[in-house]
Every structure is written in C-alpha cells, then in structure tokens.
Amino acid sequence: xxxxxxxxxxxxxxxxxxxxxxxxxxxxxxxxxxxxxxxxxxxxxxxxxxxxxxxxxxxxxxxxxxxxxxxxxxxxxxxxxxxxxxxxxxxxxxxxxxxxxxxxxxxxxxxxxxxxxxxxxxxxxxxxxxxxxxxxxxxxxxxxxxxxxxxxxxxxxxxxxxxxxxxxxxxxxxxxxxxxxxxxxxxxxxxxxxxxxxxxx
Length: 201
Description:
The protein is built from 2 helices and 13 strands.
C-alpha cells in the first residue's frame, strides 16, 4: 500500500522492503491557463550530494564531479546508478511527466543524499513561476513489481518560485529513506546549483 506523504514527512524505503534494489522516481505536473504566449517547460533534475549537502569535488579540491548532476543534458550520473528518462517539453497529458531510475546498490558510497528538483526553463524570460503550476507530485515505485511505495502531492501555494526541491532520498545507517521537501527557490536551476556547491559560470 502506497504511503501519502505530507511536507516534511520522512519514511524508510528499505526497512519494510529489504530486497529493494531499483526504484523509479516519477514526477508530474500540470499548468494553469495563462496568456503569456509561451509553453511551460518544466525540467526534473537531481543532485548527488555528500554528507555536507554538496556535490563531490575532485580529489585535489578543484572542480566538481560532473557525474553528480543529472538533467536533460546529462541523463546518466552517480557511476550509472541514476538514469533520467529525458526532457518532456510541455508536460501535456495524463500521468508522469519525467521519470528517473535509481539503482540503490550502485550509488557511490560517498553519496549520502540525492535531491530531486524541478525547475522552469527560461522562467524569467517567459515570466513564469510555480504559482502557475498545478497538481505537482513526486512518487516512488519499486521497479521490480511496479508497486507504488509513496507519493507526495505538493499542495502548498507558490508565487514567485522558479525552482523546487521536491524530495530527497538519503542514507540513514543501513537504510534508504525519503523526505517530502517541497521547498521553493527564486533564481531557477542556477540558484539550486549554487546552493549545492556547483561552480556556475
């Protein structure tokens, strides 16, 4: 039976599912009718983070692991533990809009958390924000049997935010847990990158 999460709630994925190996993280959304003249292009991205909530750096301390950011231009990351389905340019239609597959057994040992985010492409230029987005959700599915383990519906009202941390998958001792986050940011993908220690040019 799927668990319906509220903002801030945490749940263990592996405690009740000890044989869980591969999960599907699916995100979906709809958009309000608006007269800006542009399509809405929402993008799911994820960041693989260390115990300091930052992406890993190279051993000499300079530069960053490109492998730790997965989005529409880089669909595979985390030593091939994470695979993104690709960009859905409009979010039209029913069901999941973008899907990410995660192999829990392949996540690098120095990655403690995976942050799942959604941003609005060219939001500033198109005068778009999450106040114009409806029915956004994230759900986690056991790939082996296609069983939905949890779902988090973002019911909070947003107005100026152009980026969203939707949920986080994280290690807790020997378990993998999930947190429903639902935190908004202004500044789009660039703001998220800076918060996670990504060098943004």
